[in-house]
Specification:
The complex is a heterodimer of chains A (471) and B (257). Chain A has 471 residues and is of the alpha+beta class. Chain A has two domains: 2-55 and 315-469, no CATH class; 61-269 and 304-311, no CATH class. Chain A has helices at residues 2-17, 19-57, 71-76, 87-95, 129-133, 146-150, 160-166, 218-225, 257-268, 273-285, 287-299, 312-355, 357-365, 370-397, 399-413, 415-420, 423-427, 436-461, 464-469, and strands spanning 61-66, 81-83, 99-114, 117-126, 138-141, 155-158, 176-179, 184-192, 214-217, 228-233, 236-242, 246-251, 307-310. The chains are: A alpha+beta (471), B alpha/beta (257). Bound molecules: adenosine-5'-triphosphate and magnesium ion.
């Protein structure tokens, strides 16, 4: 043991003898180890983000959203623009055998008023089941019931934020919220607990902050509001016709989600995002495939763009793919820099061995065996690579901070570029994987051993007599 | 320790080169009793360094018998030889050969390191030896901070740390001025008086005159093996050395040409 300690001590001494040289030597290891930690942290961040999204949506749900056409399209229409999910389609979706139930939602932006307090929020028409599926929990009062819906009652359940804003001093239960736009009242029957907002997913599902929502029976909403939405933008006035904003499909079990999603897409005429992508890239590659694809596309009706199908299960898969790509990419960087770093260390150690030929001779004369010499140089190489590894670990730990800073810079100086990045990348929150620290340490030790072996053997192979004569 | 530090019988050493074979030693025989002080002399190329390398177990003879104490060194493996070097032989080189990164104390410790005996006891001994050679105040200094004579003292302390069968000195005073040489030789004298066996290679007659016995080599054989005037003047102090002394006297005559 004392031999090891002494050798380690000497290793550090010869390291400090040429600090600049050592620094440059360990640079590769440093980068390699740091990127190992980074790739694991970012991968972990991606999968946690995906996990969070799925948690918000429910892994056994499929969400069908109406997507409003772009403004140019709207402007081109002189009359009302109909889009989105139809009630007849809801009936079709309910027929799918693997679908347990389909929950329709209709939502409009409204201004709520009570006793001089105003609040802009979402008026959501829904069914009682919606609260369970969305994990909205009751704070006080009661939720909406089947009977409320059937009778199209003027009852509402309000979010925690709405309760605070509209009823800062009064007990909301039993009070009536006034809606300026439609000039009607809803009686508050329940107040919800605070629920964490969900993040936006792709372009189709925006972030939801549930706290300012007011929930009423969907039938009531239909009767009061109808399917028309009038919007005034400057001088132009558009009319949209939308029957349902969202249908949440509850699928029997997680395993049948994918099949169900395919059926849903087919019956709605929505193209699956990945498949569309595959067709595009194939088409641009080979002439023959292009022809067949064009033919295939021609036979299909044009895909529908006013409805999006969001499958949390698929999101998970997408996240997995993104994560994999990241891991492979960063892993490649790590491997290359570890290789280059290792070769750098080997190079320096070979030079060191030649430089210290005489010392090797002295040690051999004083009783060092070949294995002693091998050990000595291995320990020195490993201490070099471990120093690189430790600094790499330190910098690796900075990963979350660096990502936050980088995102800030990107948002400030290149917002368009940032907007084009995949969603996961935009929102990534790297999570340091604890296991990656010992792993990184182990890797740096291994690099030292692997690339130190050859120089160490060179040193041990020397003839002691000749080594002693060396100038 | 046995009465003989080393015994060589008909030692041959050939260096096989591509075109020819150099016969560096052609049957050298002599014994070194414990407590002896031998100077090896001879013209350049006569095989002195070759002989010293064999005595120091850095190399193996092509043929012949070489006993170190009771062990047949000629038939040992590389690792066994390394252990013998670590435990029984002390080297003092012309160019000191200290490890530059190490302090005085660390340099003295090196043989213990390879013997696996680096303990607090061993460390205490290293300190004592540093004091013995007069460097007790400079334990933390590096070789580059010491004079040549001081460096050679460190080397001598290092050669003593494993309590060797003998000390091998190859032109130990070759790089030193006459005053410093005299100091080093006095130190050797003192060590020999304490019963330590010393074998040294030298070119200089006045250095060799410090030994008890001079072996002259020529063309790889022992040309002469004679006691010096010191043998009579020097009074050994330890009984072990004394017994070695008697044998040295008798064997010396046998080998004398
Ligand atoms: N490694 C070697 N390979 C080949 N020949 C060698 C080798 N070492 C020594 N010799 C030869 O062996 C002979 C004896 O050499 P050695 O070095 O022992 O002489 P020396 O007595 O020490 O001479 P000097 O006083 O010049 O140091 C010489 O002829 C030398 O050329
Ligand atoms: Mg020589």
């Amino acid at each position: 043991m004392s031999f090891f300690l002494r050798t380690f001590q000497l290793g550090l001494k010869s390291l400090l003898l040429h600090p600049m040289r050592s620094l440059l030597t360990v640079l590769g290891i440093f980068i390699g180890v740091a990127s190992v930690i980074w790739l694991l942290a970012i991968g972990e961040g991606i999968s946690q983000e995906a996990q969070r999204q799925i948690e918000g949506l429910g892994a056994d749900n499929i969400i069908v959203r109406s997507v409003s056409p772009p403004a140019e399209v709207m402007a081109a229409f002189s009359g009302p623009v109909p889009y989105g999910i139809k009630r007849s389609e809801l009936a079709t979706l309910e027929q799918i055998p693997t679908v347990k139930s389909a929950l329709p939602i209709r939502e409009v932006r409204r201004t709520f008023t009570f006793d001089g307090n105003d609040l802009d929020g979402r008026l959501v028409g829904c069914t009682p089941e919606y609260f369970t599926v969305t994990r909205l929990e009751l704070e006080r009062g009661r939720l909406l019931t089947e009977a409320d819906n059937n009778n199209a009652q003027n009852y509402c359940v309000i979010g925690s934020g709405a309760a605070e804003e509209l009823f800062p001093l009064t007990d909301p239960l039993g009070q009536r919220v006034y809606l300026l736009d439609s000039k009607d009242y809803y009686q508050v029957v329940g107040v919800l607990k605070y629920r964490n907002p969900t993040a936006a997913i792709g372009g189709s599902l925006e972030a939801q902050d549930f706290k300012n929502d007011v929930y009423i029976p969907i039938r009531t909403l239909r009767q009061r509001t109808g399917d028309f939405i009038y919007t005034r933008r400057g001088s132009t006035r558009t009319v949209e016709i939308i029957e349902l904003n969202q249908v949440t499909l509850r699928v029997q079990d997680v395993d049948s989600v994918k099949v169900t999603a395919d059926v849903v897409r087919m019956s709605l005429g929505v193209r699956e995002p990945e498949k569309a992508h595959v067709v595009d890239s194939d088409g641009s590659e080979g002439g023959e495939t292009k022809v067949t694809n064009v033919a295939a596309n021609a036979s299909l009706p044009p895909p529908r763009l006013d409805v999006a199908v969001i499958v949390p299960e698929e999101l998970l898969e997408q996240a997995r793919v993104t994560r994999m790509m990241f891991m492979v990419f960063m892993g490649l960087i790590a491997a290359i820099s570890l290789l280059v770093g290792g070769i750098g260390i080997m190079n320096i150690m070979l030079a060191t061995v030649t430089e210290r030929t005489r010392e090797i001779g002295i040690r051999r004369a004083l009783g060092a065996t070949r294995s002693h010499i091998i050990m000595q140089f291995l320990v020195e190489t490993v201490s070099l690579s471990v120093v690189g590894g430790l600094t790499g670990i330190l910098v690796g730990l900075l990963c979350p901070a660096v990502i936050v800073g980088l995102r800030y810079l990107m948002n400030t100086f290149a917002p368009e570029l940032m907007a084009n990045l995949p969603d996961v990348v935009q929102r990534i929150q790297p999570q340091i994987v604890l296991l990656s620290l010992p792993l990184a340490f182990f890797i740096s030790v291994m690099v030292g051993v692997v690339f130190g072996i050859y120089p160490a053997f060179r040193a041990a192979k020397m003839d002691p007599i000749e080594a002693l004569r060396h100038e | 320790m046995t009465e003989y530090a080393a015994r060589l019988k008909d030692i041959r050493k050939d260096y096989v080169l591509k075109s020819e074979t150099v016969r560096a030693l052609r049957g050298a025989s002599f014994d070194v009793p414990t407590g002896d002080y031998v100077a090896i002399m001879g013209p350049s190329g006569s095989g002195k360094s070759t002989l010293l390398n064999l005595l120091g177990c850095l190399d193996k003879p092509t043929s012949g018998e070489f006993f170190l104490g009771d062990d047949d060194v000629a038939r040992m493996t590389d690792d066994q030889l390394a252990y013998i070097r670590a435990s029984r032989i002390g080297f003092v080189f012309q160019s000191y050969n200290l490890i530059q990164q190490y302090t005085v104390l660390e340099n003295i410790e090196v043989p213990l390191l390879y013997q696996g005996k680096l303990s607090s006891e061993g460390r205490r001994r290293c300190r004592e030896l540093a004091e013995l050679v007069g460097l007790g105040e400079r334990l933390g200094h590096r070789p580059s901070q010491l004079s040549g004579g001081q460096q050679q003292r460190v080397a001598i302390a290092r050669s003593l740390v494993n309590n060797p069968y003998f000390i091998l000195a190859d032109e130990a005073t070759g790089n030193l001025d006459s005053v410093t040489s005299e100091e080093i030789l006095t130190l050797f004298q003192q060590l020999n008086n304490e019963g330590r066996t010393i074998i040294m290679v030298t070119h200089e007659d006045d250095v060799a005159a410090h030994a008890k016995r001079i072996i002259r080599l020529r063309d790889g054989v022992v040309q002469s093996d004679q006691p010096t005037v010191n043998r009579i003047l020097c009074r050994p102090r330890s009984p072990i050395a004394a017994s070695g002394e008697l044998r040295a006297a008798s064997s010396g005559e046998v080998h004398a040409a």
